[in-house]
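Cast an eye over my tokenised protein here and flag anything odd:

===
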Amino acid sequence: MPPHPWMKSLWLSTKTTIGKALAAALLLASLGGVLAWCAATSPSPSRVISPRIPLTQLEKSLRGVPAHISEFSPVSEPLALPKCGNVRPPEALLTPDPLLHVQDDDLRVRVSFIVGTDGLVHSAFVLDSGGPDEDQIALRAVRFWRYRPALCNGVPSDSEALVRFNVR
């Protein structure tokens, strides 16, 4: 005798419910595993916060502090524009020296860049290298420098800059 239609329906709904329950259990188990893995691999607060070294100790560890000397010249204007009668070079607003890892007391790095009309540094590149690490540190520092832009007859204009880093 074939099963009654309501028994067939009950069997299918029970089969679907069990399938959904298994899928939910599998999802929860995998989510629990991911959470456990994240908790195990995330840094604990004791690993994130490193002990502070006193500033005086850091200052003593520096062999020499690089000093920078800047030179500015106007970027050549197109021939159609008049020459500047009243020129004011860029004014440094924020130009901290980079912390170079000095191995040699004769370190010299020279960088060229443009001070734009927005006061930001553009197109910075190394002219005289002090080594790959020192060059990258110097470029990174120079790219964050800020200036009051140069003025040509009272109008902000681009200006080329050269900066030399020497060890004092």
About this structure: The CA atoms of residues 87 and 152 lie 5 Å apart. The domain at 56-167 is CATH 3.30.2420.10 (TolA/TonB C-terminal domain). The chain is about 35% helix and 30% strand.
